[in-house]
Design goal:
The complex is a heterodimer.
Chain A: H1 2-44, E1 47-48, E2 56-57, H2 61-68, H3 70-102, H4 108-116, H5 123-139, H6 149-177, H7 181-189, H8 194-205, H9 207-223, H10 226-231, E3 237-240, E4 243-246, H11 251-259, H12 266-293
Antiparallel strand pairs in A: 1-2, 3-4
Helix pairs in contact in A: 2-12, 3-6, 3-9, 3-11, 4-6, 5-6, 6-9, 9-12, 11-12
Chain B: H1 2-22, H2 30-34, E1 53-57, H3 63-77, E2 81-85, H4 91-99, E3 107-110, H5 113-119, H6 130-133, E4 142-143, E5 149-153, E6 157-164, H7 165-170, H8 181-193, H9 195-198, E7 201-203, H10 214-220, H11 222-232, H12 246-258, H13 272-280, E8 284-290, H14 294-299, E9 307-310, E10 322-327, E11 331-334, H15 340-355, H16 357-367, H17 381-391, E12 395-398, H18 407-423, H19 427-449
Parallel strand pairs in B: 1-2, 7-8, 10-12
Antiparallel strand pairs in B: 3-11, 4-5, 5-11, 6-8, 6-9, 6-10
Helix pairs in contact in B: 10-18, 15-16, 18-19
Classes of the chains: A mainly alpha, B alpha/beta.
Chain lengths: 298, 450
């Protein structure tokens, strides 16, 4: 007994002592590629700059400009609406497809593969392909995708639902398969209806999957960029109340286009990016806290 | 513990996206992005202590020629020359990223006055250089507020309406007939009316897809801008415009979308390739584009003797005397923040490009007309047409669109309005185009200068 303990210590002590050295390379990479650019990003949001080398401190004026920009407000409300619609749509549909595909049916594996496949295509490619599909359909009605904001918004919702449902489906399938057969059998023996089984046994038990999927869809919706850029590029671009607004622009694309106005807007785009970060961080963390509370311990 | 890990993971994910948003712009390493583009590195026999040249190229179509010239220059002088070409449409991103590096570009492109405002601090004053002494005209240069020559137009281009003269004759018309908007309209209307019998139509599709819309929101929109600026004596970016010639713009746009086989309702999805194909396949007589299209049209199988370029007519008083719209977005700037040796090496390289016999010929073949004394004459028939008009004493329509504030954004609004108008050409919808033009200008001006 005493002997084996000593031998464990003999192995563990050197490892413990040298732990920092093992961590160092990864830690350095993390600092160089991540922590430092992040901090520099925050610093630059308080600066006027063209390249990061010529940054001049200007205080909060970038933030003031960012909040005064009607395009930013429009992009915020677009993103919020888009997030709500796509979170509900993607999760509900993905859950029911997963539910259907975990029932014993022929060809379930084939369907799983097929539903997952859209997820393997890059966002920009998807955006261009779908813009052709939508325009092809709308052409029959004498109109086109960027004719108004409604088409662009729902077009983006359809595209993203098509792309992400398969991915969320896989997560739900894993969750559904983890529910023990005993529990379902017990529910059946106790005379639970299908509805009761679904809402009182199955859903509480896949709550961890729901947490993961809502988190992923929430952050994906807020970070949405390539699909937005490729599908409509923010068009139509109109003048509203004396200001320019890109009707179908989401937050990330708005930041990108702000940066590209000219050098006096680089700092404003930077400030928007920081606001964007805080917003997504707060939302994602509070969502995690909220759905975690509903999870049942098995 | 699980909770803590999950929270940390959540934090890492959101941090990840903020880092994306906040770090410096994408560093598109040009060669990888364009495929055709490449880098030419210095040979090993670099003389010690001399400068280097890093030429950040703006025109993807000129990449191959510049790479060849760079290799030739290295062979002749041993000075290291690196040419990098930004992928199409990513020049400003690439420039910003490259300028932040320690081995920054020594020669770069400034497109217009607003570009000069952004990069003034990085541009060397070229006024008394040997290179400036070689210039044959001052028309295409950019000067900053202090009057220093900061960017030098090194080639110029023209745009107008490209005509397939063979088809025009087949329809029973000739180039000489077309001298102003009325005669252009008469010819186009006639061809359109007989299109079923002739098998071709007047204008190729005026597509408003992003690949093609710049031909109209940029080049065609230049017509009302240029005439307004001419009348008002505008030489710098104005804060507001009046839209005095918007009715002329409407006339020519109506002609483009009426006398064509393209469905005006689906213009927003019609691409540049479609339009060009209609022209090269002999389905359209007129195709609005520029001198840079010449090589592409020959490649597509057209004969140079069947091609001509005429001015864009839009019904302005005295336009019988108009020539092509000529100007440039290609202005060389030398980075003032690199070492003096590098600056000198760059100036020497540029000087060599326009004075060396072989190099200048290659430049002319690739870029069209060069405003330098020793540059040879271009072989491009469109440029020859333009030169002939100038010799006949016709006036050049200036590239007034170079003054457009926040140009991409301004054009996007104009394209949105034009697409809506084309689908439903009512007066109310035209009002939207005028608003996008005039109000949009003021808004973008305030954005950029506010």
């Amino acid at each position: 007994m005493a002997k084996s303990k000593r031998s464990v210590n003999l192995v563990q002590r050197p490892i413990r002592r040298f732990a920092p050295i093992f961590i160092l390379p990864t830690f350095l990479a993390f600092v160089i590629g991540f922590v430092w650019p992040f901090l520099q990003g925050i610093y630059l949001s308080f600066c006027s700059f063209n390249t990061p080398k010529d940054a001049k401190w200007v205080g909060f004026s970038n933030y003031v400009k960012a909040f005064q920009d009607p395009g930013f407000a429009n992009a915020f409300w677009n993103t919020a609406a888009f997030a709500v619609v796509s979170i509900i749509l993607i999760n509900v549909v993905a859950f029911f497809i997963a539910f259907a595909l975990t029932q014993k049916m022929r060809g379930a594996n084939l369907f799983r593969t097929v539903f997952f496949m859209p997820n393997l295509i890059g966002g920009v490619v998807l955006g261009y392909i779908w813009s052709m599909i939508f325009d092809g359909i709308l052409k029959n009605y004498g109109t086109y995708l960027t004719a108004n904001g409604t088409y662009g918004f729902w077009g983006l919702v359809i595209l993203v639902a098509w792309q992400q449902i398969g991915y969320m489906m896989i997560i739900y399938i894993a969750g559904l398969q983890a529910i023990s057969e005993d529990m379902l059998e017990a529910a059946r023996m106790d005379g639970a209806t299908g509805r009761q089984t679904l809402f009182q046994v199955i859903i509480p038990n896949v709550m961890p999957s729901i947490t993961t999927c809502t988190f992923l869809t929430l952050t994906n919706s807020f970070k949405m960029f390539d699909q937005n850029l490729a599908l409509t590029g923010g068009l139509p671009s109109v003048i509203q109340d004396g200001a320019k607004v890109n009707i179908t622009e989401l937050l990330a694309l708005n930041i990108y286009s702000t940066y590209n106005i000219n050098k006096s807007w680089h700092g404003v785009a930077q400030a928007k990016a920081v606001i964007f970060f805080i917003l997504v961080a707060v939302l994602a963390i509070s969502q995690q806290a909220a759905t975690r509370r509903k999870e049942v311990q098995q | 513990m699980k909770k803590l890990i999950a929270m940390l993971l959540a934090l890492v994910m959101v941090l990840g996206l903020a880092a994306c948003g906040s770090s410096t712009p994408t560093e598109t390493e040009a060669p990888a992005a364009t495929g055709a583009a490449g880098e030419t590195q210095a040979a090993a026999n670099t003389p010690a202590g001399e400068g280097r040249v890093y030429y950040l190229n703006f025109k993807p179509e000129a990449d191959a020629a510049l790479q060849e010239l760079a290799a030739l220059y290295i062979e002749q002088t041993g000075v290291p020359v690196k040419v990098v070409t930004a992928a199409s449409g990513t020049y400003s991103d690439t420039l910003t990223a490259e300028m932040a590096k320690s081995e920054a570009p020594t020669v770069f492109n400034i497109g217009n006055m607003s570009g000069l405002k952004d990069w003034d601090e990085y541009a060397l004053d070229l006024t008394d250089t040997a290179l400036a002494g070689e210039l044959s005209t001052d028309d295409f240069n950019l000067y900053n507020e202090a009057g220093e020559l900061k960017a030098m137009g090194h080639c110029y281009e023209s745009f107008g309406i490209i005509v397939n003269t063979a088809l025009l004759e087949k329809a029973g018309h000739s180039l000489e007939e077309i001298t102003n908007f009325e005669t252009l309209k008469a010819v186009a209307d006639d061809i359109h009316a007989r299109s079923a019998e002739l098998g071709f139509d007047a204008f190729s599709a005026s597509g408003l897809d992003s690949s093609s819309s710049w031909r109209f929101s940029g080049h065609l929109a230049n017509m009302p801008l240029a005439y307004e600026f001419r009348d008002d004596g505008v030489v710098e970016q104005p804060a507001t415009i009046t839209g005095a010639y918007m009715d002329n713009f409407r006339s020519i746009w109506d002609l483009y979308i009426t006398d064509t086989s393209a469905d005006p309702k689906s213009l927003s999805t019609s691409t540049a390739d479609e339009s060009k194909a209609q022209f090269t396949e002999g389905k359209a007589v007129f195709y609005q584009n520029g001198t840079w299209e010449y090589a592409g049209l020959l490649e597509a199988g057209m004969n140079s003797e069947d091609l001509a370029m005429i001015p864009i007519y839009c019904g302005v008083e005295g336009e019988e005397e108009a020539g092509l719209c000529s100007g440039t977005e290609n202005c060389w700037a030398v980075n003032s923040q690199v070492s003096e040796a590098d600056q000198q090496a760059s100036l020497d390289f540029l000087y060599w490009l326009v004075t060396d016999e072989v190099a200048a010929q290659k430049m002319v073949d690739t870029l069209g007309a060069l405003p330098f004394k020793s540059a040879p004459e271009p072989t491009n028939v469109f440029l020859a047409d333009g030169n002939r008009m100038l010799e006949e004493g016709k006036y050049t329509v200036a590239w007034a669109f170079n003054h457009t504030p926040n140009v991409d954004s301004w054009r996007a609004t104009v394209v949105t309005a034009l697409a809506a108008y084309s689908a439903d050409p009512t007066d109310a919808n035209w009002e939207q185009v005028v608003s996008a033009f005039v109000d949009g200008w003021a808004i973008e001006y305030n954005m950029v200068n506010g």
